[in-house]
Amino acid sequence: MPRPIETFVLQWGDLGGQWGVNRSIGQIHALLYLSERPLTAEEIADDLSMARSNVSNSLKELLAWNLIRRVPVRQDRRDHYEAETDVWEIAARIAAGRKEREIDPALAALRHCSAEADGDPTVSPVARQRLQAMLDFTVALDRWYGQMLSLPRGKRDMLLKLGAKIASFLPKEKG
User: Fold this and answer.
1) Are 39 and 80 in contact (CB under 8 A)?
2) Distance from C-alpha of 120 to C-alpha of 112, rounded to nearest angstrom
3) Which of 45, 106, 144, 173 has the lowest tally of Cβ within 10 angstroms?
């Protein structure tokens, strides 16, 4: 494996660990992302010096996140895998998975706690206000996520490129 590819694979695995994803999953995703052809589990295990069982479990996780797919290869009965290579699609799929696993349960819990707090005279007004603030923030984040996904790709690209330029049009806050 060429040095720059090896470096990317190792670093993507380390970053995955920081994002709460098993290092092996990150490395396999990186290898498949950079591969010019679909790879078998055996090839992945050999290239990354990983146990076949670890590769198998990691592939299942990547399939569940919809970041890779099985593809048929002519005259080969083994499973071959390739990664999604469109970075917007990768980001959208990761965001959708995280939303489902993190934001949706947080919203449900905050809605429940806020509703219970509103009807409970033993909960202080400060605690109710803070629960509502957290709920409002999470609802706004969820709404923003939906808006970003509903934008046509060209507008998302434009919005990303505008970046900090948009912030320069906002009024400056004192303080």
Assistant:
1) yes
2) 12
3) 173
Q: Is 133 exposed, middle or buried (0-12, 13-18, 19+ CB in 10 A)?
A: exposed
CATH of domain 3-83: 1.10.10.10
CB 56 within 8 A of CB 41: yes
The one-digit pLDDT tens for each residue of the chain (175 residues) are 889 999 999 999 999 888 888 999 999 999 999 999 999 999 999 999 999 999 999 999 999 999 999 999 999 999 999 999 999 889 889 888 889 989 999 999 999 999 999 989 999 999 999 999 999 999 999 998 888 888 888 888 888 778 767 877 888 877 6
Beta strand 39-40 with 68-73 is unpaired
Select from 15, 39, 18, 43 the least CA-distant residue to 27: 15
* Crossing angle of the two packed helices 52-64 and 23-34, in degrees rounded to 10: 80
> Tokens for 129?
């206000």
pTM exceeds 0.90: no
